[in-house]
Design brief:
With about 220 residues, this protein is an alpha/beta fold. The chain is built from seven helices and six strands; from the N terminus they run H-E-H-E-E-H-H-E-H-E-H-E-H. The termini are far apart.
């Protein structure tokens, strides 16, 4: 699949992400951090998939599920998208309105990423270079969750993540494709932080049980 093809699983829609709220309204964990920054990798390597959806779409779905969990528990959620162009940033905000802003940010970031890919920008910027723009200097963020395939991490990625985790808990959601799992096994774990592996072919309804390990 390529981002230039209008096919199922290649596009993020605000209504679809908003509907994921229904998956987390019951059994909300009280152990979730109260202020969480979601970081979505929308680089060209994520704009592909061999099963249900692009890895970028699955990454946004997974982060949205986590975001709704935090919001429903009374916490605040923010967003940063990573891609070829400028990142989309959504400041931390609480409740359903805060999540609506995050959902809008996901859609805007993904549309921009797809436009860059359609225009021929198909080379990944190393992940460490993009994460260096992640500002955790304030005290408002309590945890960071990064969803990525962790391809082309850059030579300084592991050290950068370790430095970030010294300030705030950092959790990784390694988004893979079942068809290419053998090619990507260990990429997230090699970065030295807690990681949950998520198959892009997994239906959103099944994501909460997998993502329960993120903050356990």
């Amino acid at each position: 699949m390529t981002a230039a093809i209008d096919i199922a699983g290649a596009t993020l829609r605000a209504d679809d992400l908003s509907q994921l709220r229904a998956l987390v309204e019951a059994g909300i964990s009280t152990s979730l951090p109260r202020r969480v920054l979601l970081v979505a990798d929308f680089r060209p390597s994520m704009l592909q998939g061999r099963s249900r959806a692009f890895r970028s779409v699955a990454a946004a779905e997974a982060l949205t599920v986590l975001g709704w969990q935090v919001a429903e528990a009374g916490g605040s959620v923010g967003l940063m998208t990573l891609g070829t162009g400028a990142p989309v940033r959504v400041p931390l905000d609480a409740g359903a309105e805060g999540m609506r802003q995050v959902v809008s940010g996901f859609v805007r970031g993904h549309e921009a990423a797809a436009a860059h890919a359609t225009a021929g920008c198909l080379d990944d910027v190393p992940l460490d270079r993009l994460l260096s723009d992640l500002d955790l200097s304030g005290d408002e963020i309590r945890a960071v969750v990064i969803a990525s395939g962790f391809e082309f991490p850059g030579g300084g990625c592991a050290a950068l993540l370790q430095a970030l985790s010294a300030k705030h808990p950092v959790r990784l959601v390694h988004v893979t494709d079942a068809a290419e799992a053998d090619e990507t096994t260990g990429q997230g774990r090699a970065l030295g932080l807690p990681v949950v592996t998520l198959d892009a072919g997994l239906l959103p309804e099944a994501m909460p049980s997998v993502l329960a390990e993120v903050f356990r």
